Amino acid sequence: MPTTLSWVATALNPETIPASLGFVESFRFSDSSSFVLGERRQVFSHRTNKGKSQKLSCCSMSSTSTPSSLITSPTAGEEKAAAAVSSEQRVNSVVLKQAALVSERLRSKANLEVKPDIVLPGTLSLLSDAYDRCGEVCAEYAKTFYLGTLLMTPERRRAIWAIYVWCRRTDELVDGPNASHITPTALDRWGSRLEELFQGRPFDMFDAALSDTVVKFPVDIQPFKDMIEGMRMDLKKSRYKNFDELYLYCYYVAGTVGLMSVPVMGIAPDSQATTESVYNAALALGIANQLTNILRDVGEDARRGRIYLPQDELAQAGLSDDDIFAGKVTDRWRFFMKNQIRRARMFFNEAEKGVTELNAASRWPVWASLLLYRQILDEIEANGYDNFTRRAYVSKVKKLASLPIAYTKSLTAPAPASSPLIKARPNQTR
Ligand SMILES: CC(C)=CCC/C(C)=C/CC/C(C)=C/CC/C(C)=C/[C@@H]1[C@@H](COP(=O)(O)OP(=O)(O)O)[C@]1(C)CC/C=C(\C)CC/C=C(\C)CCC=C(C)C
């Protein structure tokens, strides 16, 4: 086990966790079957002729889906209230909160430039060591991404590393070597530890780096809490009734990453897009990545008894859990997969619109990650939709070939004022 990995594993040992879319375009697939994905809604906030912001959102949700409460042990009253709210509406409230936090910081400070380190004897070097360790973990687990971060300013790069490490550790709780020992109580402790670090009381050096990051950048705690909620969901749920449920799960475990990262990566000063629309694009990239992950890992997940596919859509395609466990590529499966891939691509397309609005130095790694991840969908197709026995992967050659393409795309500056992403206050400083 690599050094950093064992460090993370030790830190994650349960014993050591301290008392551990408004156009709505309804569409039906042209196929004769009644496979209906439902509404297509787009993420971006457009200004109408009257200059009023109109919310367009993007997530295909089954028209037959019944939003349900996925909150831990809800009371009957909470359950009733939650049932009236779709996953997308819930997630949108987090986006609005994060965008409001950025605006609030803008009002209280002239801009979002990085605050100086608090100079206490020994603190700077400890902090610097803590960030370096985060960089090492990042370099070890996500080499290409790590290289991309090297293009960012040192402050932003360090902060992204700190967020990466926290996300990785959180994911390891349910996916790592100690996963079988992880209980909801351990997740509660991880959550308390998160609250502590947001209040300036980190538990270890990785937490210290994140604690410093959240002081320096307008990062809200909610996406972090929500990621823990996603892990909690993973512990107790192995089926998703419909896309609404799956969307919430994808938000929890991956959309949150987008919301955590944008305050650090920053929005280009000359961007005309609304803060909210950029956050929605970030959210879309996280959802797209996770949907892709799910489609790639169908066989692997089934072998663990897990099916992260909308049950109602499977049924509409004439498929059952048994078909997934049997792992046979049939016409029904190919049909089902084509539509799932189409939806994932819609989220990638929505995400694309926001990448250009990011700070110049942050665009390259984001374009790279978008292009690389999206190619997994192409590989699933190239494998004849056999994601039961074959793991779609992007070859090194294709990965390398994507980097200059990502770089060229990253040179495109934010769209001028005529863009559909016009922001409410064009002179806003970021
Ligand atoms: C620049 C950039 C890409 C920044 C993100 C950095 C960051 C903090 C990454 C954390 C990733 C992480 C460890 C998440 C934990 C949960 C998890 C495992 C999610 C899955 C990722 C893939 O992980 P994994 O390494 O297991 O994959 P492989 O199996 O090895 O293929 C996810 C599928 C989701 C990751 C989600 C993102 C990277 C969100 C990306 C969105 C942005 C960076 C916002 C971009 C902004 C705009 C405006 C589009």
Key features?
430 residues; mainly alpha; Farnesyl Diphosphate Synthase; two-stranded antiparallel ribbon; 5% strand; globular; binds the ligand CC(C)=CCC/C(C)=C/CC/C(C)=C/CC/C(C)=C/[C@@H]1[C@@H](COP(=O)(O)OP(=O)(O)O)[C@]1(C)CC/C=C(\C)CC/C=C(\C)CCC=C(C)C
General description of the model:
By secondary structure, the chain is mainly alpha-helical. It is 60% helix and 5% strand. The protein has 17 helices and 6 strands. It has helices spanning 3-12, 76-83, 87-108, 123-141, 143-149, 154-175, 184-198, 205-216, 222-236, 243-265, 275-296, 298-303, 311-316, 321-326, 331-355, 360-382, 396-410; strands spanning 24-27, 38-41, 45-47, 53-55, 239-240, 307-310. Strands 1-2 form a two-stranded antiparallel sheet. A two-stranded antiparallel sheet has the order 3-4. A hairpin with a 5-residue loop joins β3 and β4. α4 (123-141) packs across α5 (143-149). The chain starts with a helix and ends in a 20-residue tail after the last helix. The relative contact order is 0.13. The site of the ligand CC(C)=CCC/C(C)=C/CC/C(C)=C/CC/C(C)=C/[C@@H]1[C@@H](COP(=O)(O)OP(=O)(O)O)[C@]1(C)CC/C=C(\C)CC/C=C(\C)CCC=C(C)C has 28 residues, from α6, α10, α11, α15 and α16.
Helix content: 55-70%
- Output the number of helix runs: 17
What percentage of the residues does DSSP assign to strands (E)?
under 5%
CATH superfamily: Farnesyl Diphosphate Synthase
What's the overall geometry? globular
Bound molecules: the ligand CC(C)=CCC/C(C)=C/CC/C(C)=C/CC/C(C)=C/[C@@H]1[C@@H](COP(=O)(O)OP(=O)(O)O)[C@]1(C)CC/C=C(\C)CC/C=C(\C)CCC=C(C)C
CATH architectural label: Orthogonal Bundle
Highest CATH level, the class: Mainly Alpha
Whole-number average pLDDT? 79
Order of the strands making up the biggest sheet:
1-2
Organism: Rhodamnia argentea
GO cellular component, one term: plastid
Family: Belongs to the phytoene/squalene synthase family.
EC number: 2.5.1.32
